[in-house]
Amino acid sequence: MNTRLTRTLATVTFGLAVLCGLAFLGKGASHMLDDGAVCVKTGFWANSSLGPEGPPVGKGVDVSSSTARLCQDSPSVGQRAADLGSELPWLLFGALALLLFSRLVTGVLEQGPFTDTVARRLSALGWLVAVGTPLAGLVVGSSQSWLAGSMAPVVGSGLGFSGPTALVLAGLGAVIMGRIMREGVRMREDVEATI
């Protein structure tokens, strides 16, 4: 299975995983050292009449439109961390998923597609996607909720979710395919041992 396309795919996915990892580190470091405003959108006032005085928000917070975009000048450390929590989890998830996919393709290159190593790597990728998607979505949604609540206390804060949930099904499909492949490898080894 050592084709040019497979080798290229392994190289490209590894390169993308490294780029996502560097973007994760760079964005985290530069954002924590930045002293600019942090912003978050909330649908709390969506489709409501705000009146001439506008929504009740904290001092130094600017609001625009009924789907409010709240921006805090001179944010606290907690607000800056919550802003990072609404941006970084998907970069980390992408870097890890691409790294595991690269290892999967490398396993196909080295040993062929129907081996125990490939089946295990496919299952590992599936578990990462199935568990990592809701976890990253929960961190992002809760960070956005807390950040909005810290700027406008009337909004409140709590657990939230943001992101695609369909990836969970793809991850579970990869886990199931990995188990099927592992069982097929075991059956093939039993047949070869019998013959």
Describe, in plain words, how this protein is organized in 3D.
By secondary structure, the protein is mostly helical. 66% of the residues lie in helices and 5% in strands. The protein is built from five helices and three strands; from the N terminus they run αβββαααα. The protein has helices at residues 4-33, 77-85, 88-111, 116-151, 166-194, and strands spanning 38-41, 61-62, 69-72. The chain has a three-stranded antiparallel sheet, with helices on one face. Strand 2 (61-62) and strand 3 form a beta hairpin. Helix 1 (4-33) packs antiparallel against helix 3 (88-111) and helix 3 (88-111) packs antiparallel against helix 4 (116-151). The protein is elongated, with a radius of gyration of 23 Å. The mean pLDDT is 84.
Question: Which features would summarize this protein structure in a list?
Answer:
195 residues
Q: What is the element layout, followed by pairings?
A:
Elements: H1 4-33, E1 38-41, E2 61-62, E3 69-72, H2 77-85, H3 88-111, H4 116-151, H5 166-194
Antiparallel strand pairs: 1-3, 2-3
Structural class: mainly alpha
Strand content: 5-15%
One letter per element, helices H and strands E, the order comes to HEEEHHHH
**What value does the average pLDDT take?**
84
Please tell me what the overall shape is: elongated
Q: Point out poorly predicted stretches.
A: none
Strand order of the largest sheet: 1-3-2
Number of strands: 3
Number of helices: 5
